[in-house]
Amino acid sequence: MASSYGYPFQAQHCLAISQFSRPDIDTLLALGEHYLDLNVQKSQDQKILTGKTLVNLFFENSTRTQKSFEIAGRRLGADVINMSVAQSSVKKGETLLDTATTLNAMNPDILVVRHGSSGAPALLAQKVSGSVINAGDGMHEHPTQALLDALTLRRHFGADFGGLRIAICGDITHSRVARSNVQLLNMLGCDVRLIGPPTLIPSDADRWGVDVFHDMETGLKGCDVIMMLRLQLERMSGSFVPSKREYYHFYGLDRAKLAFAKPGAMVMHPGPMNRGVEISSDVADDPDVSLITQQVESGVAIRMGILHALSEAQDGIS
Ligand code: NCD
Prior knowledge:
The chain is of the alpha/beta class. Helices cover 38% and strands 14% of the residues.
């Protein structure tokens, strides 16, 4: 049977951007766009996941990602169960694989996993029979964040946003968001650059297909989009910046630094934001320059699109 959106999406899991082809990505973005429209109309007629169970398994804190998967699953008719590590047996010493075996016995159709270790969702994908979605693993990948960011860009700049110059700024080293975004934006033909202090740029960034800058003035020149990242202090095992105050002075996005970018440049941030550390409230809250609220909206829509595509692939509808 042909899929409801006319493309043979074959993936069983959503673990990393590199697993997808360009047509896969275009299909997911088109589905996301469809759900963005539908969510505005508050239409209730899409129940593609009726009878399916989605388990949100979060070993790290999350507000946006967990809630948006929950809303996305419910809007599509799934039964959604949220398991956060604080309430689970993991706190009592159970291993990841024992947790997986236990969950698998409950037959979830879709397992959404966030974990502090890179590769944990991929490992679970080998052990469970349902589909696994990586909701962020360590400093490795956060594919649904990159997809929601691309959907936000497509919505704002139009389907043809491949020519944009995009700067990803700040704590690149500890960011799974940056790693997924660089791959996806490169695949879509964007001109991607990284800006940050040398201590927060990964040593292998010269192989990422990006230009690297260490000062905002040069790096932001000609940029259409500025993606700011949180300073991920919880992943730092030493001191990577002299002080938050000094970091803000050199890398925090305020009006003065925004003026280095192209006139009309738009600002993004995956959240949670550290106001006054990587971004000023003045910039973050200005609807004329900030796409941050749209990113949250796109998050629900793209996750509905991903759930839709994975669910039909599971049912052999492709
Ligand atoms: C990001 C994450 O968890 O990787 N947040 C998110 O998913 N919206 C970025 C971050 O924590 O800074």
